Design the sequence.
């Protein structure tokens, strides 16, 4: 009797320990996540505001009705003034400059305003004027190329391998290789892209086309794997019923298997695109690190992408770029969350239809 | 406004990159030409690309002059080019502003950072663990210096300038920590860990003076005037090379903008140490002579 009781107690203790360990690890993970996010938000939110100086500096010299026009022209201040006004960093300003700013402050001629330029301008070496528009356009063009290459090729490969290919040594070997490729570090795809697209095919170097193709190579195995597992989850009975009613294998595939597997396929594609959106390493290898101050006009014009722009900003000496870097990271995180949200939405939608 | 034209392409040293990119923007506003593409791929790689073909990049930015071998390789490709010295860059030993500052001599740095040091007449593995063993006036904490990695041009300059180094590498026993090519990272670490010294280029020190202080080297603090006059021992020149065959108006205009008096002002704001006035005038007249017929 005593022995069994103590054994019960022991087992309960073990259970409690396990639960506490689990809870602790969740809390720890949340703490890290919160710390990182908190740090980025704390540093990045000021990037969405900029210091502006009124052009109505000399009211005595303006026409007598000028004071009735409520809106005056506001001009973006230099990054040194911006840093002083936001954070009080005064080391890069001279005492007369600081005095001038104080006078402006008393007259209400200096203000913090929403930094629209952060979204509408392209890259610049001046942190107060730099924006993410160029990187955003570059990312969109690059992702479009990635989607156009990786989606048809990946889904086609998976459909053929899963539904039509004979099951033999060769296809088995191909399958194993695709699974391995999906786990290869992205930087190796950068090296492949460098050799294949730039050295061998001679495509223009910092362009959305080369970037998109390289990321397409990277996404391809991931899409194949995701599509195949989606196809595998389609019940065999469904296929057999359709075949039994006289449908050809192609009809079975496109009328029954693909529609059933579509939510899974779409989720896999969108998640792999989200990964491509946040990718930097392979793009650094193929040389998409140039300073580009104009957004790309087409697929062959010089382009950079958002994560690479963040990388470039993080290496800049001006203090204003510290907040710009975090601000751009916030935008990138938002985009990734949006893409993932779309993936969830699509899955729910299709599941409801079923 | 001119029709859609190919932008100029400038490649090379990451030390010149911020300046070349800044000039690119001003050049765009002044000439309406498309903003030149500026790529930081390192001095060596930049020269290689510049010399690879006549169609390649229009300009190379470097933190050292071309070697004879590089010049020959370039000329073998039918490329003729001209060299423009842009200014100086300094290496700065930085510390958190909260720490008590101390001064170093070049031989102190050798003893603190050399992989091997000269003891009497033989080279021995570096025995110094704390600063005050080198010289009693130095602080009593252990030597911890963050600086450039051997792949960077900055590392070469550092090992070249340190006096009496045995061999050409810095110590690898943990006292010297090689940081990747991100100077903001060095600054972050210097600010977050006590008693840590960092080595960064002048522009990074200049932009972060709010939080950092520089250590005097041989009794000289790094500043625009001390580096320009050559009194501050750890400095290096920066160059722009431009192709003179198939000269285009854009190329000539970009060089002229880079060496203009206006650029000297706004680049100084970014941390470039300008040339002396005589040197500036000489280089400006050379830039004027670049023929800009297409």
Sequence:
């Amino acid at each position: 009797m005593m022995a069994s009781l103590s054994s019960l107690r022991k087992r309960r203790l073990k259970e409690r320990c396990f639960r506490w360990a689990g809870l602790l690890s969740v809390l720890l993970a949340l703490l890290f996540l919160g710390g990182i996010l908190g740090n980025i938000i704390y540093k990045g939110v000021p990037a969405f505001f900029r210091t502006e100086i009124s052009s109505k500096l000399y009211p005595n010299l303006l026409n007598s009705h000028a004071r009735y026009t409520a809106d005056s022209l506001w001009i973006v201040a230099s990054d040194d003034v911006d840093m002083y006004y936001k954070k009080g960093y005064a080391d890069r300003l001279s005492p007369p400059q600081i005095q001038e700013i104080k006078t402006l402050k008393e007259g209400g001629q200096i203000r913090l305003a929403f930094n629209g330029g952060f979204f509408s301008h392209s890259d610049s070496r001046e942190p107060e004027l730099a924006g993410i528009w160029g990187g955003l356009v570059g990312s969109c063009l690059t992702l479009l190329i990635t989607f156009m290459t990786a989606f048809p090729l990946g889904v086609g490969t998976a459909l053929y391998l899963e539904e039509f290919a004979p099951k033999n040594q060769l296809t088995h070997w191909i399958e194993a290789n695709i699974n391995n490729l999906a786990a290869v570090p992205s930087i190796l795809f950068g090296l492949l892209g460098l050799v294949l697209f730039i050295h061998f095919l001679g495509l223009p170097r910092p362009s959305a086309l080369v970037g998109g193709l390289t990321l397409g190579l990277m996404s391809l195995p991931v899409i194949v794997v995701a599509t195949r597992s989606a196809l595998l989850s389609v019940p065999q009975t469904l296929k057999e019923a359709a075949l039994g009613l006289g449908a050809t294998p192609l009809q079975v595939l496109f009328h029954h298997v693909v529609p059933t597997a579509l939510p899974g396929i779409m989720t896999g594609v969108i998640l792999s695109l989200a990964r491509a959106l946040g990718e930097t390493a392979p793009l650094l290898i193929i040389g998409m690190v140039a300073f580009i101050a104009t957004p790309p006009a087409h697929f062959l014009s010089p382009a950079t992408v958002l994560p690479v722009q963040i990388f470039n900003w993080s290496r800049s000496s001006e203090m204003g770029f510290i907040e710009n870097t975090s601000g751009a990271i916030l935008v990138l995180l938002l985009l990734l969350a949006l893409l993932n949200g779309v993936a969830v939405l699509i899955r729910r939608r299709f599941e409801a239809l079923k | 406004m001119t029709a859609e034209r190919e932008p100029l392409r400038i490649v090379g040293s990451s030390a010149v990159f911020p300046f070349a990119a800044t000039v690119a923007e001003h050049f765009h506003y002044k000439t309406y030409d498309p903003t030149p593409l500026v790529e930081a791929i390192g001095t060596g790689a930049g020269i290689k690309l510049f010399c690879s073909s006549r169609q390649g990049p229009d300009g190379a930015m470097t933190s050292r002059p071309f070697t004879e071998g590089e010049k020959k390789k370039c000329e073998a490709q039918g490329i003729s080019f001209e060299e423009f010295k842009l200014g100086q860059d300094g290496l700065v030993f930085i510390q958190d502003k909260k720490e008590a500052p101390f001064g170093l001599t070049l031989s102190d740095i050798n003893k603190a950072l050399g992989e091997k040091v000269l003891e009497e007449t033989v080279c021995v593995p570096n025995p110094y663990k704390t600063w005050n063993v080198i010289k009693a006036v130095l602080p009593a904490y252990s030597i911890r210096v963050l600086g450039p990695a051997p792949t960077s041009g900055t590392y070469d300059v550092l090992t070249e300038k340190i006096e009496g180094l045995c061999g050409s590498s810095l110590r690898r026993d943990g006292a010297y920590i090689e940081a990747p090519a991100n100077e903001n990272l060095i600054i972050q670490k210097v600010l977050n860990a006590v008693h840590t010294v960092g080595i960064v280029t002048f522009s990074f020190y200049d932009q972060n003076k709010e939080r950092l202080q520089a250590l005097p080297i041989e009794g000289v603090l790094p500043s625009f005037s001390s580096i320009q006059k050559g009194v501050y021992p750890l400095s290096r020149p920066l160059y722009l090379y431009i192709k003179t065959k198939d000269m285009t108006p854009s190329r000539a205009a970009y060089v002229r903008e880079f060496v203009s008096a206006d650029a000297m002002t706004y680049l100084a704001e970014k941390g470039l140490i300008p040339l002396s006035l005589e040197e500036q005038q000489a280089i400006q007249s050379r830039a004027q002579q670049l023929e800009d017929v297409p």
In short: The radius of gyration of chain B is 21 Å.
